[in-house]
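From the methods appendix. Each design record in this collection lists the tokenized structure first, followed by the designed amino acid sequence. Records were kept in a plain field format so they could be parsed without special tools. The example shown here is representative of the layout used throughout.

RECORD:
FOLD TOKENS (517 positions):
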């Protein structure tokens, strides 16, 4: 970890500039007289010349695809032209120089774009950093399934075609008490499918207080429009009453319009406080039954465990999927990778006839899950058969439920280890040091928006570097980027979101960075 910036350098020949054998020059010898712009442009070698150098031939021999090398050479030559135009290249661009510039360009072309990072931000479900870290069993299940063929849509007992829905449906029913369930690509897709299949071509009644934007491009009114349902808003921004829904249903029906759905959305990271009220799911469910209209609830971050009880009251009560279903919702939707702590997925649980309609809708095919996600989801859900086990083994739950004392201990261990690295690196320990500081963490992902999780972080101070410079170094100079935060002009590494594996990675990277700084 951290010692070697790129594996490629091991297989690629070292490219040396001066005096190396076979090096030729395509231009006149450098002279002390400054070159004119025209001379600079003329000094740029052509693609064939570069491709024929022994250094580039060695790259090809090392197994780098010809198309990649060719593309890399063209980029380097384009950069040279741009550099001359911008005035940043003032010497002739010899073949030697060009050959030196190629290696880093090709290395970056071959490096994967999707990278692991260390999340030291203290935001547990960080949407930009991939949301939930999968439990170990989920990781193993994915590897098992992708290594070969699987029974993705094959019923092994019957020897005939099966359904990909079968892999998680009974488990979801067992865990939530639902009659039926299905999983799709993400919760946005689950909501879209739900609206399209149950109320496409008819109306959906929703409170004005819930017409929220969750983030990115997910806005309830836009999703309604995309699904083909007609959105009928009731109530006001701050208050909606049961009679608002009833009146809306009655007047729609008086106009000869069909009412497909009563829809309730969790407002996620937005809250109306003060003089406000929303209709409970329970009342809405009663109205739905009375009026023969289906009731759907978008829970956002679905949770199976009682977070308030599990955290000893540190976390607020977040309605569980089981509670929503027991309250009488016909269908509930939630994410797989928020508080549930599994892979990106959208889960729909509800009445058998409702889920059957969803499965038959054409959108179901468009938003279906792939086998990797199904494997990870099934394994994650399996942990919830024993809620104690889920709280221990689902990283998202473990990080959320970690006590402040445990977090402090982790921060102290991290600080000690970093302190040792500073000493080993021979840096001045007066000017380069760490300290453990109080620093609130957050659930993130639009979940538990107002809840600050009392936490601890390590503040890292490096001689001659501002907090912004330390942050930049950790983020951009390590093989595995270390993402921390700046607070009160200090660079902080939150202990809550750094697992033991990630701590080892972080320390390895830091050792490497300090050795070179
Ligand atoms: C996060 C969220 C969504 C979107 O879920 P994704 O899994 O990100 O697609 C929809 N509704 C609510 C209330 C949410 O919080």
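DESIGN:
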């Amino acid at each position: 970890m951290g010692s070697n910036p790129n594996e490629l350098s091991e297989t690629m020949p070292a490219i040396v500039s001066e005096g190396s054998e076979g090096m030729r020059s395509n231009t006149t010898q450098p002279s002390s007289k400054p070159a004119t712009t025209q001379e600079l442009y003329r000094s740029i070698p052509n693609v064939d010349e570069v491709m024929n150098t022994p250094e580039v031939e060695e790259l090809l021999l090392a197994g780098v695809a010809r198309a990649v090398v060719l593309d890399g050479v063209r980029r380097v030559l384009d950069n040279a032209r741009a550099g001359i135009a911008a005035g940043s290249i003032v010497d002739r661009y010899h073949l030697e120089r060009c050959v030196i510039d190629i290696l880093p360009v090709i290395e970056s072309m071959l490096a994967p774009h999707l990278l692991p990072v260390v999340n030291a931000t203290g935001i547990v479900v960080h949407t930009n950093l991939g949301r939930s870290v999968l439990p170990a069993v989920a990781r193993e299940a994915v590897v098992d399934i992708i290594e070969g063929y699987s029974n993705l849509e094959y019923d092994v007992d019957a020897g005939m075609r099966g359904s990909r829905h079968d892999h998680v449906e009974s488990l979801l029913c067992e865990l939530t008490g639902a009659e039926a369930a299905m999983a799709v690509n993400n919760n946005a897709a689950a909501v879209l499918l739900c609206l399209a299949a149950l109320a496409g071509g008819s109306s959906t009644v929703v409170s004005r207080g819930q017409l929220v934007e969750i983030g990115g491009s997910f806005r309830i009114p836009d999703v309604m429009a995309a699904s083909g349902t007609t959105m009928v808003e009731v109530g006001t921004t701050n208050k909606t009453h049961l009679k608002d829904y009833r009146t809306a249903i009655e007047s729609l029906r008086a106009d000869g319009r069909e009412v497909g759905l009563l829809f309730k959305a969790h407002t996620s990271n937005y809250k109306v406080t003060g003089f406000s009220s929303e209709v409970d799911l329970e009342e809405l469910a009663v109205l739905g039954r009375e009026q023969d209209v289906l009731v759907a609830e978008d829970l956002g971050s679905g949770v199976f465990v009682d977070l308030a009880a599990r955290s000893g009251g540190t976390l607020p009560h977040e309605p569980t999927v089981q509670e929503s279903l027991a309250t009488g919702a016909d269908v509930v939707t939630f994410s797989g990778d928020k508080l549930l702590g599994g892979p990106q997925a959208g889960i729909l649980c509800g009445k058998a006839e409702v889920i059957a309609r969803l499965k038959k809708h054409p959108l179901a095919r468009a938003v279906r899950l792939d086998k990797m996600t199904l494997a990870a989801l099934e394994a994650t859900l399996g942990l919830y058969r024993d809620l104690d086990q889920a709280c221990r083994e689902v990283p998202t739950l473990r990080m959320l439920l970690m006590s402040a004392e445990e977090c402090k201990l982790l921060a102290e261990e991290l600080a000690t280890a970093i302190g040792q690295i500073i000493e080993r690196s021979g840096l001045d320990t007066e000017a380069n040091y760490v300290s453990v500081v109080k620093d609130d963490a957050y659930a993130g992902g639009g979940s538990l928006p107002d809840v600050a999780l009392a936490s601890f972080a390590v503040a890292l101070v490096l001689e001659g570097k501002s907090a912004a410079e330390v942050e930049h170094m950790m983020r951009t100079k390590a093989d595995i980027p270390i993402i921390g935060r700046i607070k009160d002009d200090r660079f902080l590494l939150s202990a809550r979101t750094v697992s033991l594996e990630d701590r080892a990675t972080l320390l390895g990277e830091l050792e490497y960075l300090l050795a070179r700084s």
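APPENDIX NOTE: The chain has 22 helices and 19 strands.
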